[in-house]
Design brief:
heterodimer, B: mainly alpha, 2 strands, globular, disordered C terminus
Chain lengths: ~325, ~290
């Protein structure tokens, strides 16, 4: 066994342990978060995790700065809700449809903007987000515009034979549902990133021309990554609508995109654990700071700016630096 | 009908010239640095607040307040460049500075929210109510006349500065090729700073004149800046003439779309135009001319 293979094996063993610990911590959440306020926050946390890992797949892995993530979030929320309310479609089919529609919108935008890079793509996606928000506001016959849609039902109860009925009107159950999906999406992206697809994406991110010269079809994989990330945003949107119960277009303004971007950057873009930590930190920290008043929102801006200036790798890089400092001398001797 | 068209034309030019002021700053910065400054939006907002406080709290003259906003904007531009763009320049990453300025923007907006609150300020310019009658029943308020005259003068001055002064020529040289300009004895860092100061002064001043038109809240700048982005793209990034034409065009399109279609749909029209431009002519309206020059 080569040393590299051994290192990889030990890393994947470590990863499994971390995943297991994460599952245990999340599964026991209901024991230490008893009041509904914190349970609602936990659901928001899980939603943000889905949004952040989706955006990170587009930005950190495929290297496309998408400033319109809020639009895909909104498309998923409105599409699934309208299908349920106007056409009486069952929740899970509407959920899948909302996800598919968001993904398709993302792929369309990416395909449309495939020649654009860097700043141009950023502004194209920003423009797309403005258009989506304005359509939601102005297509009153469909979306009820700024009045919003009210009394959206939670996902239907699950009644398995021999078990008590699981109702998602209960915040604890809703949290486990969203967290379960967040976990599922995380594992899915984790597998993708480690597959040849992930390597192709990394090659495109680093240098598109050389990637193309190696026979990688850049268009296909960029569109795929964009579609994947926006489909996740659509899923988060469908859960958001059924959890909050009301939908207004202003929940999906472009500022929301910036919030998600802040989570990805603060956590560490280009890693999957980073956005998870970023989403948790930037959801929980402002809540803890609520006592200080409106200062809590300043935290987002300050965190984003300072991280880009001083630790562009985010919390993941910071953790790595700390770990390296702690284990500085022994590590150096074993490596040589 | 003709009266309505003329009136909307005047309104369109008023808005258009303000968009030009804001978008020119973005385009100048992009020309020199190939970077986007998101905090430009908040310089507009802070300019508007500076003018508001100068006029209504300290009882100053509105026209002087435009100058105050200009100075405040210039100062902020200096800070943003020194704090964000200068340290990040060595890293050479295309997207990090943009993301950092999004952070600055969130920070400034929420700091303003903390100080000024979410309730819109009533910024009634003393010139808004006096009207000059023009041909055929159309009219223009003094406020709008001030906007058009001040913007036109500023743009003309800037244009003359870029074309005829040594410093302006150096600036254009840096925009074309920073390294070669450096070899010719131009200090690019100084010129980048100068560009930031000029660009942000324009934004601050634009804010002072936009204040009475916009709903003045800490988030007022964002709606302007997204349009300015659209204008900069339609006009061709880094292209001054293109930006001026595109800015006026967007002002006019907006004003006629408000009249003819539906006020709610103006943004959709403008941004659909942006996406179409990006799809079919990502180099902007008058790109060929620029290529000839090179």
């Amino acid at each position: 066994m080569s040393s590299e293979a051994r290192l990889r094996a030990s890393q994947s063993g470590k990863r499994r342990w971390w995943l297991l610990i994460a599952i245990v911590v999340v599964a026991t959440c209901r024991c230490y978060f008893k009041d509904s306020y914190w349970r609602a926050n936990l659901i928001v946390c899980a939603l943000n995790v889905i949004l952040a890992i989706g955006l990170d797949f587009i930005l950190g892995y495929a290297g496309q700065l998408n400033l319109g993530h809020s639009a895909f979030y909104g498309i998923g929320a409105y599409a699934s809700t309208l299908l349920i309310i106007k056409l009486g479609v069952p929740f899970w089919i509407a959920f899948a449809a909302g996800m598919a529609l968001s993904g398709a919108a993302g792929m369309a935008l990416s395909l449309f903007a495939v020649r654009l890079r860097g700043h141009y793509l950023a502004i194209a996606s920003l423009g797309f987000a403005v258009i989506v928000h304005q359509v939601l506001l102005n297509w009153i016959s469909l979306t009820q515009g700024p009045l919003g849609i009210y009394a959206i039902k939670p996902p239907p109860d699950i009644a398995l034979p021999g078990l008590p009925v699981i109702s998602f009107g209960n915040t604890a159950n809703m949290f486990y549902l969203v967290a379960g999906f967040a976990f599922l999406f995380y594992v899915l992206l984790d597998q993708l990133v480690r597959s040849p697809i992930g390597e192709a994406l990394a090659a495109i991110r680093e240098d598109e021309v050389s990637a193309a010269s190696f026979g990688i079809n850049c268009t296909v994989w960029k569109v795929f990554a964009f579609g994947m990330g926006s489909a996740l945003a659509g899923a988060a949107g469908a859960f958001y609508a059924s959890f909050v119960g009301t939908l207004v277009p202003d929940a999906f303004i472009i500022t929301e995109s910036f919030t998600i971007l802040a989570m990805v950057i603060v956590g560490g873009m280009g890693t999957l654990t980073g956005p998870v930590w970023g989403a948790i930190l930037l959801t929980v920290l402002p809540e803890l700071l609520r006592g200080i008043g409106d200062l809590r929102l300043v935290v987002y801006g300050a965190a984003l700016t300072l991280v880009v200036l001083f630790v562009p790798g985010g919390m993941v890089q910071a953790a790595r630096i700390v770990r390296a400092r702690l284990a500085c001398l022994p590590m150096a001797s074993t490596r040589q | 009908m003709l009266t309505v068209a003329l009136q909307q034309g005047i309104n369109g030019i008023v808005f258009g010239s303000l968009y030009v002021l804001v978008a020119l700053g973005l385009t100048l910065i992009y020309g020199v640095l190939v970077q986007i400054n998101f905090a430009h939006a908040d310089i507009v907002t802070i300019g508007a607040f500076a003018a508001y406080f100068f006029t209504f709290v300290f009882g100053g003259n509105y026209l002087v307040s435009i100058g105050i906003a200009l100075i405040v904007g210039a100062g902020l531009g200096w800070v943003v460049n020194a704090a964000i763009f200068a340290p990040l320049r060595e890293r050479g990453n295309e997207l990090l500075p943009l993301i950092a300025t999004i952070g600055v923007s969130i920070l400034l907006q929420n700091a303003m929210l903390l100080w000024f609150g979410p309730i819109p300020y009533a910024f009634d310019s003393p010139y808004s109510n006096e009207v000059i009658r023009l041909w055929g029943g159309t009219f223009i308020t003094w406020q709008n006349l001030i906007i058009i005259v001040v913007s036109a003068l500023t743009i003309a001055l800037l244009y003359a500065f870029m074309k005829f002064t040594m410093m302006g020529k150096a600036l254009r040289a840096v925009a074309q090729d920073r390294e070669t300009a450096g070899l010719m004895g131009i200090n690019p860092n100084q010129l980048v700073m100068l560009t930031f100061v000029i660009a942000s002064a324009l934004a601050g001043m634009g804010g002072a004149m936009l204040g009475p038109i916009l709903v003045l809240t800490p988030f007022a700048g964002t709606s302007v800046i997204v349009k300015a982005f659209a204008i900069v793209i339609i006009g061709g990034f880094g292209n001054v003439e293109g930006t001026i034409i595109a800015g006026l065009a967007v002002g006019l399109i907006e004003s006629f779309a408000t009249q003819l279609i539906n006020p709610g749909l103006t943004d959709i029209v403008v941004f659909t135009l942006l996406l179409l431009m990006l799809a079919f002519r990502p180099t902007g309206l008058i790109a060929e001319k620029r290529e000839e020059n090179v």
